[in-house]
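Notes to self after the call with IL:
- keep both proteins in one doc
- input above output, always
- annotate only the second one for now

Protein 1:
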Amino acid sequence: MTFVQLIDCRTSRFDEMNRLMDTWVEQTGGKRTATHSVIGRDRSDASHIVEIVEFPSYEEAMRNSNLPETERVFRDMVALCEETPTFTDLEVVRDEQLYAANVRRFFEILAMRGELPPLDGVLAENYHDHDPANEQDTIGMDAMRREIGIWRSAFDFAFVLEDQIAQGDRVCTRWTWKARHTGDFLGIPATGRNVTMTGTTVFRCGEDGKIVEGWWQYDRLGLMEQIGALDELET
């Protein structure tokens, strides 16, 4: 579960504080587990500084805190403050921006050239996929990799994400799929044709941001027509 720490302090030596944070970033390179950091200054009180640091989990935050470089920087930070900084530890229970970013990343991974990268950073191990073109739902990471492999072996493709709406734990994406038919697809040999398909996918995300369930709707009939699968039926 994503973990966020708020560091609240007062200092009139902001420039020195800023340089200190640059030093920490430099010294902890390769060891730092923080994934995002924002520093804000209170508009009504320039000496009031709040830093927001995001970690993949509480455990990673503790590992970061235990780095000797972090301990040294903390001592130097306290010396720059007018009073001892306060810390607020937050477990993120909902982050719609995180969900949407993870969904975008999933679409990017699907279209990557070469061997399919690991999916464990974006999909839950027990992911449940609903595709009306399949007789049975696809359940589990391994089964989903096989399903994705069918498409990747038949087409070189990319997604254009036209619209995306996040609400609660759901992310809805309207997309256009652009591809070249380069391999066998459901018994149809490669045609070399350039094809397009439109669709919409709704994903449900877990608290850690990973996708746990998906519902697909897309123009499968239009795709089959473009690769000539309907030619014999029309004659």
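Protein 2 (the one to annotate):
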Amino acid sequence: MKKLRKTKILDIKNVCKHFPIYKGVLRKVIGYTKAVNNVSIEIYKGETLGIVGESGCGKTTLGKCILQLYNVTSGNVFYEDADKNQIDILNLSKNEKLNFKKKIQVIFQDPYSSLNPSVTIRKTLIEPLKIHKIDNPIEKITNILSAVNLDPDYINRYPHEFSGGQRQRIGIARALSLDPEVIICDEPVSALDVSIQAQVLELLLSLQNERDLTYIFITHDISVVEYLSNRVAVMYLGEIVEILDTVNLVNGSKHPYTEALVSAVPVTSLKGREKIILEGDVPDPSDPPLGCHFHPRCKYAMDICRIEKPLLKSLSGSNSHFVSCHLQPS
């Protein structure tokens, strides 16, 4: 894993996305589902930040907020350019947002549904190039297909003529077409066979090194995060509960939820390690528990955990490890 330069490219500050809950014919708002709640994290140029957690923890919603596919309830996402100027990408004008979309792209989870089955690969890849008025679009497409190890002669085929792995490579090519700086990878290998997963992950690493890309890698698979990421942010019930370097993930995690996720990984490196079985279900994000949201499922829960919500704070002696837990002193 390459060493980070610690040059900030994105600064997510207190981002919230609350979905209203309606009731009755008049659709009166009776509450809110707090899918993402007060999330703050810095993302460095050239790194891969893994975001992990159980289904429904808010990791995909956070990605969509950064992409502006959702309008955030509150908070800011700052992009830092080469001159150290911070641009709040959530408050740009319509034209500014269109131009900025070239800098942040996405690879979706399902290669079967993320491509339009009724149009050729040529049209799929050329459309964003035309919108942004990129010169020599066919030459660009040809080069990108070669970069993702696909034959450029496939350009006139339809999505159903490709395997799942090939379709995901087309999705990667589409993300690369505008030469982005940041790519949000939303579970990009979870729908693929294990052998194909390895090929796609190797491709992503190769492209990152060649093009100096920054990845936000959203997944529930700890083993994939350990292989690909420089740092890991663990989400639970819409909030980040721990941030740490990947090298410390297996033996250095401090939050009980992270420990449970790691213990569930069926790999030989964890042989002899106690397997932690989380009891109960993830609480309702529209009615979270008082105090620490994780305390109903935590075997270490204390009285204070049921009353006072812990803050995300740095561990003593570390400027890269943050944890939200009353068990850990700052």
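Annotation: The mean pLDDT is 90. The chain has one domain: 8-103+180-323.
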